[in-house]
Structures are given as structure tokens and as C-alpha cells.
Amino acid sequence: MRIFSLLFFAAALFFISCNPQKSVTNNYLLNVSDTTAKDSLPRQNLVIQKGDLLSIRVYSTAIGSQPGVDAPYNLPESGIAGTAGFIVDDNGNIEYPQIGLIHAEGLTRDQLAEVIKTKLQGQLNQPSVIVRYLNYRITILGEVGNPSTFTIPTER
């Protein structure tokens, strides 16, 4: 009798524990209504941090017949693929020519461009400011062909 109950328990356990793998792996698709954007990631709005290297270019319409009036506000391009830029110091500030100290840490690129643009309103005619990261890096780890850190020039 004891062996019979043990065999019955083992058979019941065997039949209860069997579940096809197909239903387990496809359950995540049951509640998905739109799969058109499953391969695209939302673009993150990155904030400026200490140690970032920023490229800041200022352009404006010339006042009267004065071409190049915005030249004092831009760093000269270096021979190494235009790597001249502004480094965010340990206090989160950058020293910008003709303006002075600007707190950049915690701002996005667009917010920093707007801060610089408002400070240039009285000095330049319709200033336009472009801010880019020069040291935008990603790190790839894991079982890949070449795990390393890569500098990405397009910020994407």
C-alpha cells in the first residue's frame, strides 16, 4: 500500500509539472498592442556632467558691414578634427570667452545654448548657439567581438 501511494504521488507530480515551453515563452506578447516601435529606443536627453568636453559655436548676423563679429566668441578649430572645446570643471562651470563663467552642470545641450544666447543678446545681432559633446562615449561589454569604449561623433 505504501509503494502504491508513493507511485501515485510520483505520477501526479510528473503530470502536474509538465508544461509546454511554447506557452511560457510567448506569454509576453499577449498584452502588447503596438509592436511597430519595438526595435527603436527613445532618445535620451543627456545632461552635462563634470569632465565633459563641449564644442560651443556662436553664429550671428553681421551688424552693418562687420563680417566676423562673432569670431571672438568661438575657439579656433584645432588640426585634430576640431577637438578644441570647453571642459566642464570640478565645480560644473565652463569659462566662456567674452562672457565669463557659466554653470553648465545639470543642463542639457539646448538649455546651455539658451543660457549663452541670452547672455549674448546685447552683444550680437540674432545670436545662434550650437552645443555638442566632443567626448560622447559608449562602452560595450560582454561576449562580443571587441569589448571596448568607443567615441561616437554623432551622439546617437
Description:
Helix content is about 20%, strand content about 25%. With about 160 residues, it is of the alpha+beta class. The strands form 3 sheets. It has a 3-stranded antiparallel sheet with strand order 2-1-5, with helices on one face. Strands 3-4 form a two-stranded antiparallel ribbon. Strand 3 and strand 4 form a beta hairpin. The radius of gyration is 29 Å and the shape is rod-shaped. The model has no long low-confidence stretch (mean pLDDT about 75).
What layout of secondary structure does this protein have?
Blueprint: H1 2-17, H2 21-25, E1 53-61, E2 86-87, E3 93-96, E4 100-103, H3 109-120, E5 125-133, E6 137-140, E7 148-151
Antiparallel strand pairs: 1-2, 1-5, 3-4, 6-7
Q: How much helicity do the residues have?
A: 10-25%
Number of strands: 7
Number of helices: 3
Mean pLDDT, rounded to whole units? 75
User: First CA to last CA: what distance?
Assistant: 71 Å
Biggest sheet overview: 3 strands, antiparallel
Radius of gyration based on Cα positions: 29 Å
Residues in β-strands, percent? 15-25%
From N to C, what is the helix and strand string?
A: HHEEEEHEEE
Structural class: alpha+beta
Q: Which parts are unreliable, with pLDDT below 50 for 5 consecutive residues or more?
A: none
Q: What is the 3D shape? A: rod-shaped
Spatial ordering of strands, largest sheet = 2-1-5
